[in-house]
Amino acid sequence: MTEISAPQPPKTRCRRCLLAEIAGSEDIVAAVGRARELIPKSDLCPDELYKKRLSVCRECDHLDSATCLRCGCYVEIRALRLGAKCPAGKKKW
Fold it and tell me: Residues 48, 82: contact at Cβ < 8 Å?
């Protein structure tokens, strides 16, 4: 006898979401933490500036499922570096 499984709900995109808000993203959130540990302290963005950058990203039309559609990066990793720039044409941060 063949077992029939219940239909799976479709995966949904999360426009303007960050990694911490996407269900099942625990591994990716942990990767952000590891990335933070690997960046030399002198190159690490201060927490307040980091939060401001993510706030700007959250309002951007190029953010889709925690990924910047301009460059393909996870915004939470890109924003960690002090010298990083927003890849959007308007240079939002």
Answer: no
